[in-house]
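Table 4 source record.
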Amino acid sequence: MIIRVLIAIGLFLPFSLYGQEEGTPTRSAIKLDFKLPSGLTNHSFRNMMSGLADVDLNYTYHFEDIHLIAGAGIKYSYWNLESANFPNDIVTGRLEVVSPFINLGYRSIMGEKTFLDIELNGGYGRLFTSSNQNDKAYVQDAMILSPKLSFYLQASNLLYFGINGGYTLMGAEFTPSNLYLENFPAANDSYNQGKYQYFSVGFGFYAIIPTFK
């Protein structure tokens, strides 16, 4: 449900603002990023979970005089369990991450119509692992940090399109307990050590909030 709402917002924003010339741009904006995540550490997480979506929606304010940006938003990440890792059983599942965050960053104006944002997002989120092994989701709470780099190109008076990449660290581990299992096939305990970490790349929109006379 969450991902559908974010996608709907993402489709509405660019079409509603593209070509829009009315209104005076302000320092406030709405940013929406869609990224494809890939696990980095924790052997079990990296090999058993396939990242399908990593979405950030946030409000941003630009302090032009000092080139700083600050804001707040929400992150949603979705991962699918690779059932091929369980040759002797039919195991299906997914991991969903929901995290409100605050962000602080630096903006470099690279040209009349381009800029680069270097940001750090930080928040406290909740991870839900669901599987056919149990009717109840396995819940984890964790601090989440995400440094991110974004490049934007102006499309209209109020809208920019961009590409971005980032790294995310979550303060929890992926273990057999996530799926209500005693162990993973052909794995030892060392495979489950290490916090969730992943890299993601994708695209985004930067929609300036205007004032109207």
